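note to self: dont lose this again. the chain is below, predicted strucutre after it. 123 aa total, dont forget to put it in the shared folder this time
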Amino acid sequence: VQLQASGGGSVQPGGSLRLSCVASGRTFGTYAMGWFRQAPGKEREFVAAITRSGGTTYYADSVKGRFTISRDNAKNTLYLQMNSLKPEDTAVYYCAAVKTYTIVAVSTGYNYWGQGTQVTVSS
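---
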């Protein structure tokens, strides 16, 4: 599967952005999906994950209550709604996919990655 992330940009603290990740092919619904981010000089970190049906989600503590992961299998699209953004959310955001029934919250568990989209939160 090929993944194409978009929706990043620059926003002031407290603002919102919605990231999208479009997947190629007709088997999107067989992949668990996740969002990760990487800030300059830091390792890639887990943000959120969702099962292939969308029935279960999981979040990093740092984004819980502010970010929402969702998916539309009919549109082959994964979303990340980001509200109440903080400067520490600044990073390149990546979507990832793995063909599994479970939810995956570690980067080593994924074998397909999108190209990343930059999110900058600054006043």
